[in-house]
Design goal:
The protein is α+β, with helices and mostly antiparallel strands. The chain has 16 helices and 15 strands. Helix content is 35%, strand content 16%. It has a 4-stranded mixed β-sheet. It has a 4-stranded mixed β-sheet with strand order 7-15-14-13. Helix 1 runs antiparallel to helix 6 (172-186), helix 10 (301-312) packs across helix 16 (512-525) and helix 12 (337-352) packs antiparallel against helix 13.
Length: 527
Amino acid sequence: MSVNTSRNRNILEGLFKELLDMRDRVPEDGHISIARFRDIEHVTQFNFNELDSAEVNLALVPPVLFEPMDWASLKQHPVDPELAREFFDIDQDDECDFPMEPVDRVRQVSTLIEDRTTHEARSKQNLQTVHYNSSWTARCLVEPCPDDVKVYPNLAFHVLGDKVSNEDSILYSELSAIVEAMKGRANQRRVDSERGREELDECDGRGKEAYPYLFSDEEYFPILVVSCVAPQHARFVLPANRTQWDSAETIHKIQGKSLRAWPDLRSGSKVSIEQFLLSRVLCPPRRGPSQLVNGQFGITPALLTRAKNLLQMIPSYQLYLQNIGGNNWADPALGPFGPVLRLQAEIRAGWAKGGGKQTDEDTVNAAFIELLNALTSLVPTTDSWWRTTKRRLTFTGLRNGYVAITDGQFEVKATEEIRTPIECKGREREKLNARITMQEVAELVAWVKEYPDARISPPVRFRPLAGQCGQEIFLESLEYGQDWIKYIRQGQKAGNSFANLHSYGPYDMNKVSDMRLLAPVIVAMSY
């Protein structure tokens, strides 16, 4: 038996015991901190579209030991719209004999995935259903069919839950299922006879030690989980590249359509998926605060250095940094940053009572604009200011149009020319990221359409947007060229008729390190 296999088996046993010990202390929302487990590495924001090369997959840390079905084969097993089922409504009447609850909707989603997107393709992938002895159950549990010389340890299955899952996090139920599946696979015995399997079933596995391990020399026990969780609606994945956009175009049946001719244009806050896709804006994965590309916001290295040097000399700003996260906002030495700290404390107080539900969007909006103006006011030569006055931006199509309303903007005082629109929300962004991004894109598209660039403009152009969601701040920049402008204005799809929305953040208003990164950017934009 491999030494590494034995060690991994012991690690999995230890992890499983840890999970059992904490099952009575799991928070109400079902999420747990992965940092407490030293033997687990949790990689978030993973790009699953880059897994076509087995060599690349194995070189990743940790390696990816599942080979995706190739696109050509997958297209041979399309989803048949004629087989689409009607989903039951979740009952609001508690007195119903058999109420339809959220978890029932989750179960329907799992069954739909199994029946319509994997079942018919299994033979092509050489997969078989697993009859697996364990204390937990799962839907659509499959494994690779063994060949003449090898049995594969890989498992894939659905986990069902009634909790609302957050981005970049993991539910206790998900981690428990993964660890127990790996542990069970590592300890699985080779029982070749049906009679032997029945006997082990009848005595709950007692006597299994008489059989050898099925995977005596395996070091990896790959598990692929499709977690079907609340909320009980499909999650729209923002297309990050042309391949994803082309796929979404086919799914939503908008081939040959254009935004200006779309008959169902809706206001920015109610934009449909079809309208968003027809904006032809790709959304690459968000980057962290330290990865911001300053040039996308019109900031040169010289401007950024100038902003940093200015901030070093401002006592009120330095005092603000010292008081971030506290309640000392009355010190006159804070200058324009006193009101900022007061409004930020009000946001924190709302969240302390139970999260974003108690945080009013107007408070977040006021706190954000107060912070931006406090930083901009440090530049004595600035000709612009951040305003709370909302502006209506209109996109005019062939037969109709839509209006997107800002939550304020950075504008030139003399001309009211918009330099950066603002979009704020009272709640944290991740739970509503797709919806918020679609609204922001609608706003930016309307801004570009109503207020065109100068006749002589660089081939690559940028329009920035700033926003705060709850306690987190985000900066975004729309990158586009003349081909995309022609598409937006005339419906032409020649050349590269796509734009890219670059997103950065979150900048946590309670973290000094994040505010040190954000402040020079805002000051540099103010020159």
